[in-house]
Amino acid sequence: MTDKPDAAALLEEARRTFVRILLPLLPTERRYDGLMVANAMDIAAREAGQGDAALRERVALLAALFSASTAATGENLHAPLSQLEARLGREIRAGLCDAPGARRDAVRDYLRRSAIARLRLSNPKALANL
Questions:
Q1: Do the beta carbons of residue 119 and residue 127 sit within 8 Å?
Q2: Do 26 and 67 lie in a common domain?
Q3: Same structural domain for residues 74 and 37?
Q4: Listed residue (38, 4, 36) closest to 21, CA to CA
Q5: Domain range spanning residue 110?
Q6: Residues with Cβ < 8 Å from 70, sequence gap 6 or more?
Q7: 97, 103 in Cβ contact below 8 A?
Q8: How far apart are CA 109 and CA 115, in angstroms?
Q9: Are 55 and 78 in contact (CB under 8 A)?
Q10: Can you say whether the dihedral through the CA atoms of 16, 18, 22, 28 is positive or negative?
Q11: How many CA atoms lie within 13 A of 78 on its CB side?
């Protein structure tokens, strides 16, 4: 056990300090910029708190869809995810996922899960409307 706060807790505290103390000191014309910084800190805190579970799930889903093996590790998740999503995009554009059936259903499921995972980070309030 450690007595150090994790990255998510540090970001949350930094954001809280920024919003309560520093943001009110900014000139009016810089307030929007300050709010964008606070929002970015909020997203980063959620991402840090989530760990790599969501990324790992997305890589696994796409690897299964393409029957591909990946040796993705915590530091190495973004590259294979990006490559697999680029491949999926090419296949969608080529019409390879249009025919009714299990593949189209799997692609639709992946896209839905991916959108939800991204919303959890960038705008979790939007999920209340789904």
A1: yes
A2: no
A3: no
A4: 38
A5: 53-129
A6: 59, 60, 63, 80, 84
A7: yes
A8: 10
A9: yes
A10: negative
A11: 2
Matching residue, tokens 């150090």? 4
Q: Does residue 92 belong to any structural domain of this protein?
A: yes
Based on the fold, state whether residues 90 and 121 are members of the same structural domain: yes
Indicate the SS3 state at residue 74.
helix
This model's pTM is above 0.70: yes
Dist CA 81 CA 64 (whole Å): 12
**Residue 87: closest CA among 109, 68, 113, 112:** 68
- pLDDT over 60 (residue 11): yes
Rounded distance between C-alpha atoms, residue 56 and residue 124, angstroms: 20
In the block, residue with structure tokens 């591909």: 68
Token pair, residue 21, equals: 């103390």
Count of alpha carbons within 13 angstroms of residue 91, beta-carbon side: 17
pLDDT, tens digit (0-9, with 9 covering 90-100), for 88-98? 999 999 999 99
Instruction: Give the gyration radius of the chain's Cα atoms.
Output: 19
Query: What was the pLDDT predicted at 54?
Result: 84
pLDDT at position 27 is: 97
Q: List, in order, residues 6 or more apart from 43 with CB less than 8 Å away.
A: 121, 122
